[in-house]
Amino acid sequence: RAATTLCLRAQEPRTPHPHPHTHRITTMSAHARTAPAATFARTQSAHKSAKTRQVVAARTTTRTKAVAEPEISSKAVPRDEIRNIAIIAHVDHGKTTLVDSMLAQSKVFRENEKVEERIMDSNDLERERGITILSKNTAVTYKDKKINIIDTPGHADFGGEVERVLNMVDGVLLLVDSVEGPMPQTRFVLKKALELGLKVVVVVNKIDREGARPDYVVDMTFDLFCSLGATDEQCEFPVVYASGFQGIAGMEPDQMSDSLEPLFEAICNEVNPPMADVNAPLQMLITNLDYDDFKGRIALGRVRAGTVSKSQQIKIGVPGEPSRNGKINEVFIYNNFVRNAIDSVGAGDICAIAGLDDVMIGETIMAEGAVALPTITVEEPTVRMAMSVNTFPFAGQEGKYVTSRNLKARLDQELERNLALKVEPGDTADSFILCGRGALHITILIETMRREGYEFTIGPPEVITKQDANGHKVEPYEEAYVEVPEEYTGSCVDLLSTRKGQMLDLVTDDKGMTRMKYKIPTRGLLGLRNAILTATRGTAVLNTNFDDYGEWAGDISMRENGSLIAHETGAVTSYACMSAQDRGILIVKPGANVYEGQVIGIHQRSGDLKVNVCKKKAATNVRSNKDATVVLNEAKELSLDDCVEYISQDELVEVTPLSIRIAKNPKIKSRNKQN
Asked: 590-649 pLDDT, tens per residue?
């Protein structure tokens, strides 16, 4: 097969890609696309092949440090009636939409049943923002096979959700946009899948999109596999072309079926069935937690060995520690988007169990005599924010849970299922330090708590620094990818350069779109998204991915403008706003209540300025014929994400169920007093 492929490639004419800035080969036979590894191995030098094998061997030896990989029993046999897959991709590449089509074509819903769009995004925040935040699993039946499907987040800040669930599956569907190609998060999730040795099926999604270039995308994906040190076997990935929105798929971009049957066939033929020994002692690693008002805590995971049954006596534990006893009340499986009760589940299948109120993610449910499986570990957080009890003048007026005890209980509850989050004690008894993958990771938790009735204050995001082997200070760096129209390239370059960014690549295609790649400190990314959108009039797309820790980059100018601060407590008046709006952009409206020290606007110059927005028009006995017409500018509304990006080191965000305010930190002197 390899020799035939090499001959075919030698006979085919090689034509350059229509995009002049990308030196790629697009003429590629269907056979070569499905088996590129053999061609690659024979066209590269022996030194490079040896180097690739060394990288893969090194990653294989260190793989157990990152994820749990239980040993497969010698008596294990394949369960051909089951397939376990996860769908991984960059944000907005169509994972959840594709799952919707797979569910619809599996006859999960009745013909007259009303089905919402992106049904897997059941969280309110997920529907509002249009992103997947939590990993969710379901199952469909194709012919005589049950396919367990796990939908994962695509944003880099929620990469911990992807790492947590990948050890439940035997293969992944790697979705790649037919126009954009592999993106930063595509690299991250593919790296984790290759480290686990999972079978990867590449799905070129949105094939019906205008400007689709499937051959170019497949070439870029192959290059991504090679850069990540994939083995020759892993590089022989099958390719399926699909449109999740239309629910069609095909093995060639110009030979599309009218359904997703080619995709289902690829899953059944390419993804290996789980190897399971149903007669061995029970072993089940908990990878997710859910809650039911009637059944209590529900633990989810994959049965690694043995059989889990209803009313079974089990032990719960982790390696190296004594185990404790427990009893399983009920066992559930996911089928056709509902949770069905069942008497027992054999090894190789994914199930949920109820009755264990103290079980945690990473613990092993096992029978007497079995050994606990390795726990789940994820990458370390890079950003931290301080949370404390609200002590500002309006504290306690809108929130239901306002004490430090309430905050600690809620954070402890979050730690049970959010493995990428860490909580440390703050400087005082009523403060906590939240450590996460990024500012978005933490603000999603803050927004969730706000909607649950909690009231608190949060400080500005800061990066988590470390000391290297020589005792030098190092900080996290990220790879930033910016896609912007060519006329705004200069503005983006200036912004990234002032934040200590180093340009790695710049390519402009024939459609006038420029794609830039930068290596930039995580500190420089804080507040950058809004600045780039403002400079490019909302046309830029910014994507980031954690790279590594590097040398401290020095001081970075985060914000040029100061703040307008309320001079006194009271209600905002239109009369006062008429003069205050000349000083900058107001973020409060007439009639709103403010207090002394609250930030009510963005100063047009550097440095803070106190203004009186509560001043009323003097009442005299002199009657005027006509009051002057007051034309006020519309106040700028700041969301929680905007406030977190805006605040400086001496400011806090006051978060309540009904309001989001910015105020000066009373414990820190203002910049004007320091000057």
From this structure: 999 999 999 999 999 888 999 999 988 876 655 554 555 667 888 899 989 889 989 988
Query: Would you state the structure tokens that stand for residue 323, as one six-digit string?
Result: 């185990």
**44-58, 442-456, 474-488, 658-672: which range is least confident on average?**
44-58
Distance between CA atoms of residues 311 and 307, nearest Å: 12
Report the DSSP pairing between strands 283-292 and 296-305: antiparallel
pLDDT tens column, 446-459: 999 999 999 999 99
- Contact in structure between 305 and 281 (CB atoms under 8 Å): yes
Query: What sign has the CA pseudo-torsion 422, 427, 428, 429?
Result: positive
Mean pLDDT, the chain, rounded, equals: 81
The tokens describing 352, both together, are 């949920």
- What is residue 289's predicted lDDT score, i.e. its pLDDT? 85
Count Cα neighbours of 89 within 13 Å in the Cβ-side half-sphere.
Answer: 28
Residues 6+ apart with CB under 8 A from 256: 207, 241, 243, 248, 249, 250
Per-residue pLDDT, 446: 93
Of the candidates 279, 293, 370, 295, the one whose C-alpha atom is nearest the C-alpha of residue 332 is 295
Residues 6+ apart with CB under 8 A from 385: 433, 434, 436, 439, 442, 458, 459, 460, 461, 462, 644
What is the CB neighbour count within 10 angstroms for residue 56? 18
Residue by residue, DSSP assigns 6-53 as HHHHHHSPP-B-SSTT---B----HHHHH-HHHHHHHHS-HHHHHHHH
Q: Which residues contact 336 (CB under 8 A, 6 or more apart)?
A: 103, 106, 108, 138, 139, 140, 141
> Helices (DSSP H) in 288-378: which residue ranges?
none
**Helix (H), strand (E), coil (C) string for 489-526:** HHHHHHHHHHCCCEEEEEEECCCCEEEEEEEEEHHHHC
pLDDT at 624: 55
Which structure tokens are listed for 193? 């899948």
3-state secondary structure of 362: coil
Q: What is the mean pLDDT of residues 160-188?
A: 85
Strand segments (E) across 206-329: 239-243, 248-250, 275-276, 283-292, 296-305, 307-309, 313-317, 324-327
392-416 mean pLDDT: 91
Beta bridge partners of 82: 146
Sign, CA dihedral 475-479-483-485, equals positive
- The separation between CA 39 and the C-alpha centre of its own chain, rounded to angstroms, equals 35
The position carrying tokens 């390419």 is 270
Task: Give dist(CA 577, CA 500) in Å, integer.
Answer: 38
From the list 237, 233, 198, 242, the residue with the least C-alpha distance to 220 is 237
What is the SS3 assignment for 211?
coil
Q: Count how many residues are written for the chain.
A: 675
Residue 588 has pLDDT above 50, yes or no: yes
Let me know how many helices (H) and strands (E) the chain has, helices first. 19, 37
Which residue in this structure is represented by tokens 């769908």? 87
* DSSP type of residue 64: G
- Is 274's pLDDT higher than 70? yes
How many C-beta atoms lie closer than 10 Å to residue 6's C-beta? 16
Contact assessment for residue 566 and residue 611, using Cβ atoms and an 8 Å cutoff: yes
Structure letter (DSSP) for residue 649: T
Q: Around Cβ 90, how many Cβ atoms within 10 Å? A: 27
Sign of CA dihedral 462, 463, 468, 470: negative
Reported confidence tier of residue 119, pLDDT bands at 50, 70, 90: low
Which residue type does 373 have?
A: L
